[in-house]
Write a structure and sequence with these properties.
TIM Barrel, alpha/beta, single chain
């Protein structure tokens, strides 16, 4: 009987212990749930405060004129489109204005590409970047003006520039009164020695060469000479230069001995298919031979000559006589003589004559 009563008490004690443990566990779970709920409430309140702060900041940014990334990207694209439209309209207006003012198509196109040389040839336009590897002449648009005598005068600020006035002549000028020419202030003259035919390639001497070179030198006008070349190889270039050297040997030639390189205005010209390398071989052969003979070599040509026919930097070692009719000069690189018109007039010469200025003292 005693043992039974004891077992009963023990079982009751165990149940009470289990109940206490369950109560404690449930209390802990309730406490954790309560804590988690409190945390959620706090977090929610914090998020609401952050949301309100962000909304307030965005409202402030909008009031200050700031935009979202999407809005900014859209505004940038709109600005680009507007800029393209304005640029296009500006270019069109410039072209229209220049054409209405009487400027030619080539001149108008050149004004739109100031960093390139634009050359028109055979119905096409060619574009050549202006290089810094070649010395530039540095003259500005207003450095030269036409004087009362029809010659260009230098009015720039470089005191080292001293311009001399000159003409270049051939049999087309006929008989020249060189005494009168000298009295007009002419300092120098380039006399044509001869030419090579554009189709058959026959060499011809200029009928008035001797009369012109004698008349000029006897009246105190310094002279240089030139030859219109249609040589197609080194052999023919040597043939041309040897003729010149033989013909000028009796005279005092102070100015350069010049090879005239231009494209012939003929579909059957023998030089039509020459490459720039072949043109340069002719020019270099001529000039190097002239230099070896003790004279000053020079190449005459226009903008096309020093772009399409030859690369300007490949003939940069020689004197340059540039032909360009108009001002400012549309040729950026160094030059020694500028032929600025083919329709000049000088007393003592009948009809029109090419006028030149020299900025190099020979």
């Amino acid at each position: 009987m005693k043992n039974t009563s004891q077992d009963t008490r023990e079982r009751i004690g165990v149940r009470n212990t289990h109940n206490i443990i369950s109560i404690i566990f449930l209390s802990l779970v309730a406490l954790l749930a309560l804590s988690f709920s409190v945390m959620l409430l706090i977090k929610n309140a914090s998020l609401k405060r952050e949301e309100e702060a962000v909304r307030s900041e965005l409202e402030a940014l909008n009031e200050e004129g700031y935009y979202t990334v999407t809005e900014a990207d859209r505004l940038i694209e709109d600005a680009k489109a507007q800029t393209r439209l304005e640029t296009t309209n500006s270019i069109k207006a410039t072209i229209q204005s220049k054409l209405e003012a009487g400027e030619g198509t080539t001149t108008t196109i050149r004004s739109l590409f100031p960093d390139q040389m634009v050359v028109a040839s055979s119905g096409r336009y060619y574009f050549f970047p202006i290089l810094d590897t070649i010395a530039h002449h540095g003259f500005g648009e207003e450095d030269f003006v036409v004087g009362d005598d029809g010659f260009l005068e230098y009015v720039g600020s470089d005191e080292s520039i001293h311009v001399k006035k000159g003409v270049d002549v051939s049999r087309f000028q006929g008989n020249i009164d060189w005494k009168t020419v000298k009295e007009q202030g002419i300092d120098f003259a380039f006399i044509r020695v001869g030419l090579r035919g554009t189709t058959e390639g026959k060499i011809l001497t200029d009928d008035c060469f001797e009369d012109n070179i004698k008349g000029a030198t006897e009246n105190g006008i310094d002279v240089g000479v030139y030859f219109y070349s249609q040589a197609v190889n080194e052999k023919e270039a040597l043939e041309e230069v040897q003729l010149i050297l033989d013909m000028i040997e009796p005279y005092d030639v102070k100015y350069p001995v010049v090879i005239d390189i231009e494209s012939a205005d003929s579909d059957s010209a023998r030089t039509n298919d020459l490459t720039s390398d072949e043109y340069e071989v002719v020019a270099k052969t001529f000039c190097d031979t002239v230099r070896s003979a003790g004279y000053k070599p020079m190449i005459y040509g226009n903008v096309k000559s020093f772009t399409l026919l030859m690369d300007a930097q490949d003939v940069d070692d020689y004197g340059i006589w540039i032909a360009y009719y108009g001002s400012p000069l549309y040729y950026p690189y160094h030059f020694d003589v500028w032929q600025f018109t083919s329709s000049g007039t000088v007393k003592g010469i009948d009809g029109n004559v090419d006028l030149n200025i020299s900025i190099t003292d020979y």
